[in-house]
Design goal:
With 241 residues, this protein is an alpha+beta fold. The protein has a single domain, classed as Beta-Lactamase, CATH 3.30.450.20. 29% of the residues lie in helices and 23% in strands. It contains 6 helices and 7 strands.
């Protein structure tokens, strides 16, 4: 497995209110039951009953771009297996907690910058234009999805190549009051860029399956009434993303 190369400097950050979570016992907007239900849906949709698509083990995360730093508000149980962290460690964190421990020379900085730009665009309600070197779609029209790979670190310190297929889902607890969330399909790409190219060749199928997951997630999300927007409050000013 070849390491991911490091690239350009990070873009300038900007000042925003950083959220402060309520006490842990009140952080019940995503339950273990919801995580299991979502993983069951992912396993069902991304496999033919015997093997999963391309033999990969897929999992999902859900992030709230309306909250500064775009924290994860939920995930499937497969994601806890992928990264080694428990639900309490994951919910409320920006996904960079998987990147920060990685040695700098193994971090693909260009991918990190593009990820931040994608999340910032959704946060601002703006269209995201892919970079000119983006290989997975035409670069002359805005996209609501982003595919990339980044070296991540598990809780035990082991490194892995993590797929991120991020897509904007409209979700809500009331019909007609849906808001955008960033949902990410994730998997350990053991063969690195070779696996990423294989996934790029079936993006149409992936997108179709993502649509099916959205239907399942919408039902789960509707039942999870205590959403993250009710549990965050401003604390102080620091650089976001």
């Amino acid at each position: 497995m070849s390491p991911v190369a490091s690239h350009a400097n990070m873009p300038e950050s900007y000042e925003v209110d950083v959220p402060e979570l309520m006490p842990a016992q009140e952080q019940q907007f995503w339950s273990e039951e919801a995580a299991e239900m979502l993983q069951d849906s992912v396993d069902k949709i991304f496999s033919d009953g015997k093997t999963s698509l391309l033999g990969l083990d897929f999992s999902f995360t859900i992030a709230d771009p309306s909250v500064p730093e775009c924290p994860l508000i939920g995930c499937s149980t497969g994601f806890t297996t992928l990264c080694g962290y428990g639900m309490d460690d994951i919910v409320g964190q920006n996904c960079r907690f998987l990147v920060d421990p990685v040695p700098a020379h193994l971090i693909d900085q260009k991918t990190r910058d593009h990820t931040k730009e994608f999340c910032r665009a959704v946060h601002n309600g703006a269209e995201w234009m892919p970079p000119t070197d983006y290989p997975f779609a035409p670069v002359d029209k805005p996209l609501e999805s982003f595919v990339c790979m980044q070296t991540n670190a598990r809780k035990d310190g082991t490194l892995f190549n993590n797929l991120f297929y991020m897509k904007v889902f409209e979700l809500g607890t009331e019909l007609g009051e849906e808001t955008p969330y960033i949902v990410a399909l994730q998997a350990d790409l053991k063969e690195g860029k070779e696996d990423l190219v294989a996934l790029a060749n079936v993006l149409g199928e992936l997108d179709e399956k993502m649509g099916k997951v959205q239907d399942e997630l919408s039902a789960i999300f509707f039942c999870e009434c205590a959403l993250s927007r009710q549990l965050f409050k401003p604390r102080r000013q620091i650089s976001a993303f």
